[in-house]
Amino acid sequence: MSTPLVYIDQNIIGLQQQGLIKLSNRDDMIWVYSKEHFAEMRRSDNPEKYLDILSDIGAKCLELILDEDWKITGQAKLNEQGTPYQHYENYIEAMGEVDFDESIFDPFQVWVNGGGDEDLLRDLSENFAKQIFQLTIGLPFDTSEMTEKAESIKPKFDSIIDEMISNGNDIQKTRSAFGDDKGTIGSISGEKQIEKIWELISSTMGETNISCDQFFGFDSIDKQGYESWPMYLGIVGCNAVLDILGFQAEKKCRKISKIHNVKSDAGHIGMGAYCSAILSEDKRLIRRAKAIYEYKKIGTAAILVERRTHKSTQSNADASVD
């Protein structure tokens, strides 16, 4: 029988660092982290304090397996070679080698969630074209066709943005359009929560014949070269849809300065799907994870670690993952 993998959210590392819980290097389970943790550490003032914790508890890095075309295969592997410090250094080096702004579409995501800035949204197409140019400028072959295509879609891109701004981004109107006039979606609980949400909003879909999986992002209409849409991307997409609908959503999804935290939460839930359990202090994250895992019949246990006394928190965390 394989050793259980227990994925720890970034806030669990923080609790350990503060001495509020006491995780230890154990033989009966493996604490797991991912590159999503590195993305969060990179935004912090002192990544070393988190890397120290990962080293102390013997945590291992879980990585998505990519094919020769850098596409997600749907599988993940545990990288048991190297230390958290080495993996973090490799991550930083890799990020530095590619001149790619991963936040380029943040203004779009924030806008559809009911926040954001019109000017940032209007700059999106221009920034996208510049990004393509930066990514292709050093390639050892003629890239003019790629940059021309990027420029050619700019007018259509701008037209979409203009329409979005014209329609406004009142999130309550958006949710009402999906049949949720009274915030019912936000209070859905119990079993089969995704199905309950779909039952509420499916009547607003008209004759589109869209399925529940397609609506929530698990079966992308545009497969982008994939034969089947990877579960990880489906989970990340589902979280973005749930933000719009207001299911266990936070106000930070409407703030450009906080949207990266929202994306990290989705990434953690996605990576947790490859493990036996995921631990977090974030109630909303755990509730979403439970709803998503139940809907997709993923066996990962989503476990909430609550702030209590030092002793009771330790007991709660250990008992929950055994």
Q: Structural class, please?
A: alpha/beta
* Approximate shape: globular
Mean model confidence by pLDDT: 88
Q: How many helices does DSSP assign?
A: 16
* Beta-strand segment tally: 6
How far apart lie the N and C ends?
14 Å
- Strand order, main sheet: write it out: 4-3-2-1-5-6
Give the low-confidence spans.
310-322
Helix content: 40-55%
N-to-C SSE series? EHEHHEEHHHHHHHHHHHEHEH
State which percent range the strand residues make up: 5-15%
For the largest beta-sheet, the strand count, sense and barrel status come to:
6 strands, mixed
Integer-rounded radius of gyration: 21 Å
What does this structure look like?
By secondary structure, the protein is of the alpha/beta class. The chain contains 16 helices and 6 strands. It is globular and about 55 Å long. It starts with a strand and ends with a helix.
For this entry, give a set of tags.
322 residues; alpha/beta; 6-stranded mixed beta sheet; 16 helices; 10% strand; globular; disordered C terminus
Write the topology of this structure.
Layout: E1 5-8, H1 10-18, E2 30-34, H2 35-42, H3 47-56, E3 60-66, E4 72-79, H4 84-97, H5 106-112, H6 118-122, H7 124-136, H8 144-152, H9 154-167, H10 171-177, H11 193-201, H12 212-215, H13 231-245, H14 259-272, E5 277-280, H15 283-295, E6 301-304, H16 310-321
Parallel strand pairs: 1-2, 1-5, 2-3, 5-6
Antiparallel strand pairs: 3-4
